[in-house]
Amino acid sequence: MTETGVVLCGHGSRDPEAIAEFERLAAALRARLPGLGFAAGYLEFARPTIHEALSGLAASAARRILAIPGMLFAASHVKNDLPWEINSFAAANRGIEVVLGRDLAIDPKLLRAAAARIAAAMPPGIAPADTVLVVVGRGTNDPDANSNISKVARMLWEGMGFGWAETAYSGVAYPRVDQSLSRAARLGFRHIVVFPYFLFTGVLVKRIYAQTDAVANRFPSVEFVKAPYLGDHPAVLDAFCERIAELDRAQPAMNCQLCKYRTQIVGYEADAGTPQAVHHHHVRGIGLGHAAEHSHPHGDDHPHPHHPHPHG
Known about the structure:
There is one protein chain. This protein is of the alpha/beta class. Helices cover 37% and strands 15% of the residues. Strand 3 (64-69), helix 3 (76-92) and strand 4 (97-100) form a beta-alpha-beta unit. The longest helix has 18 residues, at 143-160. The chain starts with a strand and ends in a 63-residue tail after the last helix.
């Protein structure tokens, strides 16, 4: 067993299909990392937990562990929950170096993967210039993470030559999916491509597709196209490998210029500098047969805004 290991840190989901897709991506990533120990773990709703994954590598003689967020953007999970998990494990295992990498963020590789998914979904003969692109993000109470969806939409809009683009969010942030799609349907374009900017399926992606069908029924003269999410596209795997490589060379720093926990952001001034608190310690491993034990309505959909949990 090598002394260096990699932990891919996922969120977890109540949807078995989402877990299966995460595991498939993890297996593909493992195959690209010969000579390194590898494990995958989850914040909630699935096992192994991140703590269990870290412990497994440590038990296999790993003395340096590279923890990689299996998440697109740095919101509460990456800025707060993952650092708490990593710091807690490191504090209890002083002989093991554990370092946390950065999120995938807005990356040219992910943009190429997104463009490929969108292009593959578009019916033959439909010109992008005659089409509206609607990019749907998860939605958080972190304006930094939410604004990334707008930037992704703009870059795909201009890069692929769409006639217009809109952003939408599956929850917490606005506009919501049905609002954005209804507005897009009134712009006069005959075609709308809906692209969930997600890594995996789950409650939210399935809800986005269902909402698309509902809006399409109200606007029969407009063709709605449901593009697939990012999934395990080769360029996504390339981006994960890049995060691992940069973490192996040095400790990369997250861009905290717009982090509401470090800087006073308009409308979120009270969040700057508040004490770090963990969000997921009470739900480690929940799901897979005992989700009913946890009455707080977390889940893949997270219907409520997260409590502010800054990183230190």
